[in-house]
Design brief:
Elements (H helix, E strand, L loop, with lengths): L1 H6 L13 H11 L22 H9 L3 E7 L4 E8 L5 H12 L17
Antiparallel strand pairs: 1-2
Helix pairs in contact: 2-3
Length: 118
Amino acid sequence: MNIVMKWYGSIPVRGVKDKNAIYCVAQILEESQELHIIISPEGTRKKVAKWNKGFYYIAVKTKVPIVVTYLDYQKKEIGIKGVIDNLENINTVMLQINSMYNDVTAKYPENFSLELKV
């Protein structure tokens, strides 16, 4: 996936000392005419109980919708589950995302979990 992403001109962004990744990405987005940002909210390849909410704060700060995409390894599908425009309440957004991913099978299902406690 890394090779494909670089071929399309992707730029990896990570939080670095004295810089916040949310503000770095928001600034890049605000300065661009057209840009797509892809974020894995788990933030890691291992199983986590709490998702990183940076994707939400970037969307709120830059006033862009969250497009929920998926890779379903069992069905061998890739696609868009939906677009979330109303970002007023993080709990509502997380519940929407959870419901969108209910029927998606990860590559390593044992390492994927929805954030049940919102």
